[in-house]
Amino acid sequence: xxxxxxxxxxxxxxxxxxxxxxxxxxxxxxxxxxxxxxxxxxxxxxxxxxxxxxxxxxxxxxxxxxxxxxxxxxxxxxxxxxxxxxxxxxxxxxxxxxxxxxxxxxxxxxxxxxxx
Length: 116
What we know:
There is one protein chain. The chain contains 3 helices and 4 strands, in the order E-H-E-E-E-H-H. It has helices at 18-21, 70-80, 83-115; strands at 3-16, 27-28, 46-48, 52-65. Residues 105-112 have low confidence and may be disordered.
């Protein structure tokens, strides 16, 4: 189950959030309140599923679960994208046409060497 947790008590927690934010280093969490419109990377008082605590300790209150959680929102967005299938189909067609033309060129070159 996907969850979002608001940190209530913390002792120097650091969380690896690369899955959500792309941050390459762990992020320090705090108890400071944030504005509601803060971006995901600026929410220093929140922890999310699909992330890992790498040091410290924290206690929090679950504020969102399932599709209401951040990773749940991402999951819903990914599931609604149908153009990915179209891109893969296009890539398959391009790959097949290039593979076929390479095979034809190879066969014709090989047959020319044999006849000479």
